[in-house]
Amino acid sequence: MMAVRYDSVITACGESFMTDEITADFRSGWNAALQAVRYWHEAQAKQALIQSRRSRFPKNLEREAEVHQRAAEQIMTLSPEDV
User: Fold this and answer.
1) What's the rounded Cα separation, in Å, for the pair 26 and 18?
2) Closest CA relative to residue 59, chosen from 69, 47, 49
3) What pTM was estimated for this model as a whole?
4) What is the arrangement of strands in the sheet containing 3-4, beginning at the earlier edge strand?
5) Per the domain annotation, does 56 fall within a domain?
6) Domain count of the chain?
7) Span 14-41, pLDDT tens digits
8) Residue 20 to residue 62: CA distance in whole angstroms
9) Alpha-carbon distance 75 to 67, whole Å?
């Protein structure tokens, strides 16, 4: 369990470290996580579009696909400072 303070993070073991430093390992992990989320949203958009072609009521599924596509496009604009 993590408790967050203004300028540091206290881990479950009681150790603290500054959150102001963003290491190369953290940055590469951040980018990998964003890439995974982007791929997931793109896959969900494709799946919703395929389902909309087979559905009697495709509008809701088309809207869902648009939402996932927009999320996939916007996800890469996030940075660790945003969180």
Assistant:
1) 13
2) 49
3) 0.69
4) 3-4, 8-10, 16-18
5) yes
6) 1
7) 555 555 678 889 999 999 999 999 999 9
8) 41
9) 12
